[in-house]
């Protein structure tokens, strides 16, 4: 399950990605690419493949690609064949965090803390467990404990930084991400975290610089490209933003967030028919996401087809009866509508009352 909430509130905790830097997942990435090429079938032979080390690194590679279901399958196999393995379990826990599998995450946390209280991975898993339950104060304590156990464990600083973002303690979050970079300057999640905070502070130039630094470490991340595109649009570089989003969609053609933002920018540039086509494709990927119907309604309103606009606004309300998306819709209006349309956007947000955002899909890693 992927959620706009995860993307809007703390995208790459999205955790979207790194363990302890590119070196941690590169072996799995290489192995995965060779295996997918079908040129080396011997790589799938049990003596080579069915080992905890190999499966852990391939799981990390899938995790980097935001293929969380595949990553979970591999990590669970690691747990089956090498239940004593601790390495990589912090990534497994973040995979479960993305998939909202609280029972499995709780069990993993208990197993690891019972087995070894002196390894940072165990406390990162415990922190993720409580973060998923929105017990942020407890999660923060566990991430801090992971740092106490091993001050050189970069991922603990990054997870702690994301947790501070959730509690709106941005100065402390900045310090955490900088510490992660101090430990490992190729830890792209930390560069992403800095960019995310600068974006929240509307320091868009700084946000773009830090997102691009993250992308230089992980150039195949559609999520990072998506964030760069959003920032470029905020900097009034709409054509460049569309090119960036096109690159992201080229890497991951069914990434719902990339397609949503591309549709939003097309809408902002008065390309209503192109935006509508994009949204209709997106509706096939995430048929129960209220924000898609909300934006379709705004497109039809611009096209003068009031009855279709009202129908889509109504569907958006039906899909979000508790009003979970209002803040995100306001952000859409702020980022993608001209200032002289403020009154119209207020009317629409009243019609489609909301508060957080959830995008349900089989895919996965913050920002509007």
Automatic annotation (TrEMBL):
TPR repeat residue numbers: 120-153, 154-187, 188-221, 222-255, 290-323
Places the protein is found: Nucleus
Stretches the record annotates as Disordered: 335-368
Main location: nucleus
Biological process, per Gene Ontology: anaphase-promoting complex-dependent catabolic process; cell division; metaphase/anaphase transition of mitotic cell cycle; protein ubiquitination
Gene Ontology cellular component annotations, sorted alphabetically: anaphase-promoting complex; cytoplasm
Superkingdom as given in the UniProt entry: Eukaryota
Keywords per UniProt: Nucleus, Repeat, TPR repeat
PANTHER family reported for this sequence: CELL DIVISION CYCLE 16,23,27, CELL DIVISION CYCLE PROTEIN 27 HOMOLOG
Family assignment from sequence similarity: Belongs to the APC3/CDC27 family.
Name this polypeptide is given: Cell division cycle protein 27 homolog
